[in-house]
Write a structure and sequence with these properties.
- The chain is an alpha/beta fold.
- 40% of the residues lie in helices and 13% in strands.
- The strands form 6 sheets. Strands 2-8-7-6-5 form a 5-stranded mixed sheet, sandwiched between helices.
- Bound molecules: ligand F0G.
- The site of ligand F0G has 15 residues, from helix 4 and helix 5.
């Protein structure tokens, strides 16, 4: 059969609300032209994020009823620990309420002024948690990953030579760990090859520096390896994931992605001394080490989700359905990061709106217009999210790419929802000459994209 169907049937539904363009104009204005400020009820198709937005399975919901809510030593924790350990192979498994809590605990222990954390590309919260300690977050993406139009299999790979040179430059004592983000969310959801993970590990070994994975989308990454890397087509996704983690000395995980849950995360590692320090901080900030900011039922749902996410029928549908949206919109000429990522399609706003310069936020302009056009919510990943100001001149220093991410929640939307999204995007593209830039009129000093307010330029 040619059609790849959703590998589930729907047992419970949630209505979505339809609005008119006129209503959406008022809603967007009231939100300060920041889609994070729009009440979700006023969004028709929500592609803001794939994080915490998964539909859980009947088995996960039954796990919720079965959750053991004991403060210490809950049976749900042991199930969670066993499942995570089976995948990661790591000795110490520390639950946290979400990914950034794991990051905060890890970097509070290893970061600090004068330290550097290399990554293929830091996600925004990872960067913020590194920088919050006074350390510097350094992105060392390979060259091909920086070119949206080039089609390549593993555009999330780290530049291994640059990593080696960087460690030599700043001194290995100033690099407490190296991180690889799988898949590379900020760089287009692109996968990292096993070869690259192995090579990065070799460099880390040479300087005796631990390697950590930011493992939010490890299963999607493993499936890409199965599809694209030589020697992996006959291996199970679990085996591939196990190999990926075998090169890592630890990991941070937001279970809100590839554990198919609405809340949860963990920190895993092999270093006992570091694990003790992390657990001590966990007790202060998250909770006792056998629940770490989660309810027992959440731990059950994570454990079940981690098993389901490795199902190849699921991953086949997942990766194909993202590619399906990409194929529809690229056929209409819309420029995207090629090839499409695992969890999202990333529109290349620079090529979509060549007349809107970075300091007028072309990505933001597209995000606003697709909401107005069809009630679709995406997110800007460009100068709004990652732009910085020059300390002397106050001018915007834009990041290399201006993107709009359309993240696909897991198991939530059907093919006709996605067909509708494609129509909205194509209509917006046809009218692109009418789109204008935006200016920021209010912003916070960190992670400004969540709360800043805009004004449209005329
Ligand atoms: N690392 C990566 C690669 C992420 O994509 C995220 C979250 C985190 C860490 C932090 O995890 O949200 O559980 O605290 N990404 C979401 C997104 C928010 O929309 O891409 P968290």
């Amino acid at each position: 059969m040619k059609t790849i169907i959703e590998p589930f049937k729907i047992k419970s539904v949630e209505p979505i609300k339809f609005t008119t363009r006129g209503e959406r104009e008022d809603i967007l204005k009231k939100a300060g032209y920041n889609v994070f400020m729009i009440p979700a009820e006023d969004v028709l198709i929500d592609l803001l994020t794939d994080s915490g937005t998964s539909a859980m399975s009947a088995k996960q919901w039954s796990g919720i009823m079965d959750g053991d809510e004991s403060y210490a030593g809950s049976k749900s924790f042991y199930r969670f620990e066993k499942t995570v350990r089976n995948i990661t192979g790591h000795k110490f498994i520390i639950p946290t309420h979400q990914g950034r809590a794991a990051e905060k605990i890890l970097f509070s222990n290893v970061g600090g002024k004068g330290k550097y954390i290399p990554n293929n590309t830091h996600f925004d919260t990872t960067r913020a948690n590194v920088e919050f300690t006074g350390a510097e977050a350094v992105d060392l993406l390979n060259e091909v990953g920086k070119h949206p139009e080039i089609k390549a299999d593993f555009k999330g790979d780290m530049d291994v030579d640059a990593l080696d040179a960087f460690i030599q430059k700043v001194g290995k004592e100033n690099v407490p760990l190296v991180m690889i983000t799988v898949t590379n969310n900020s760089g287009g959801g692109q996968p990292v090859s096993m070869k690259n993970i192995r090579e990065v590990k070799e460099v880390c070994k040479k300087y005796d520096i631990p390697l950590f994975l930011d493992a939010c989308r490890f299963a999607e990454n493993a499936y890409f390896i199965k599809l694209r890397e030589e020697g992996y087509k006959d291996k199970s996704v679990l085996e591939i994931a196990q190999e990926m983690f075998s090169y890592a000395d630890g990991a941070t995980m937001s279970a809100k992605k590839d554990a198919l849950v609405n809340i949860g995360g963990f920190l895993s590692m092999n270093d006992e001394e570091l694990a003790t320090k992390c657990r001590n901080l966990l007790i202060v900030t998250e909770g006792f080490p056998t629940y770490g900011g989660l309810a027992g039922r959440d731990l059950e749902a994570v454990a079940q989700g981690l098993e389901e996410v490795l199902d190849e029928n699921y991953l086949h549908y997942r990766i194909r359905s993202t590619a399906y949206l990409a194929e529809k919109i690229t056929a209409a000429g819309i420029p995207i990061i090629e090839p499409p990522g695992g969890h999202a399609v990333y529109i290349d706003a620079k090529r979509f709106l060549p007349n809107v310069p970075p300091h007028e936020y072309p990505g933001q302009s597209i995000v606003c217009e697709i909401y107005l056009e069809g009630g679709v919510r995406g997110v800007e990943i460009g100068s709004v999210m990652f732009g910085k100001y020059d300390e002397k001149t106050g001018e915007l220093i834009p990041p290399p790419m201006e993107l709009v991410r359309l993240a696909i929640p897991r198991r939530v939307y059907t093919q006709s929802h996605i067909d509708y999204v494609a129509e909205v995007l194509i209509e917006t593209y046809k009218n692109r000459d009418k789109l204008r830039g935006y200016k920021i009129i209010e912003e916070a000093p960190m992670l400004r994209h969540f709360t800043c307010k805009f004004e449209p330029l005329t």
